[in-house]
Amino acid sequence: MTEAVTTAADLSPSHRSLFDKAVSSVRMQNASYAVQLLLPVVKDVPSFLEGRKTLRQAAALVNAGKKKLIDTSSLSVMKLKSKVDKDPVGVLYDIEEILATDPFSVAANQLLFDAANAAKMPQTAAFALEMIMKGHPTNIKVMHKLAEFYLSQDDPEGAITVYNNILKVDNSDGDARKGVTNANARLSMKKQKWEGGDGGNFRDLIKNKDKAKQLEDLARVGATKEQMQEQLAYLGAEYEADPNNVDNSRRIGELYERMDDYASALSYFQWALQLSNGDASLETKVHKLQDRMDEQTIATLQATIDADPTAESAEAAREQLKELQHARIEKLVISSRERVERNPTDPQLRFELGTNLFNAGHPTEAIPELQRAKGNPAIRTKAMLALARCYEAKNMLDLGVRQLQEAAGEIPTMDIVKKEVLYVLGNILEKMGRKDEFLDAFKQIYEVDYGYRDVASRVEGSY
Questions:
Q1: N or C: which end of the chain has fewer CB within 10 A?
Q2: What percent of the chain has pLDDT over 90?
Q3: Which of 96, 99, 94 minimizes the C-alpha distance to 62?
């Protein structure tokens, strides 16, 4: 947001002296004196936003805990509305006098927003709505207005913050969800300088169709990061022209994913999913990206812990890691259950739900999902392996052994799945005291992959 804001350093000596005294008064809990000092400063220097913010801070301290029997601010505001069009800068001081006695007044701050906007003072306008949010944190109507204003001023980061605050108040607000997706897309475009960093505009680039096609082909078969960024430029121009094109949003998301920018990729896939009215493949992609971002956060927290396990930061990281891991698996259970409800005949979705239920500590609920999933040849052995783990968790070891022996017999080559099946089978057999059978399972792995987990040491240790 561009506004000719006056800083404290720009003030005249007399105004600077008043401001410094006001700041000192706020620190010394003499807020009422600070209000008296600051009112004439903001009257003489309307563009002094820092002074306006300090004035509001002081007024909030003065009025903290006060309950008004009659709120007259709305009446005062009504009298000033007609002045906004005629003299938007001049009316700012009159509004400040009202706000000095009621700093969170919705009516007065709304009028300050209108006047500042008319005076081409966008930062001051945004500050007015921010004060309403601070005093009335559940006023969703004003929050939407502020988010839209941020977007109109090309400040998608500000809009994202506000939309996320809306969702904290009302998680079902569809406009806020759509808004945060659009704002993320706008932020991505700003980062890629899709408006033309050299003074040009990428809308012009799209005219070169041959070059665009060449870049698209490169993106499919393998391209450098610079080539993918150039392709993003062309797709960005198309997105600006038609943001409701599902296929284009998907292609942008795919490029960001290949560039390991998962946050940007997620925003585009979420938008594409919303446009598609629930396309299953896009929904799968969204969930996978969300999970990948959680994995990145988990890795970062674990690195903090490993760097100095005794530090305070490590302890905080451990708590955050525990909460994130729990929230992550519960989120996966909820999302996979919803997908099964929409597509109850899809065995892959049943397998994912069963796996997530087991990981969340619900083996009993996981069993029927995995039993239905194993009917599909493509995932049969994986489902049987997961079933065996469920039976093991319930101490139904004989049922687990039966599943694993059947699975091992159906896998012709010693691939990674068969190794895992035999390894789990060996562990369960060992628990059951069936030493010879346990060793036989491990020896099958030992003969083809000496370095697989702890197989070598356990086999050699038995001799």
A1: C
A2: 43
A3: 99
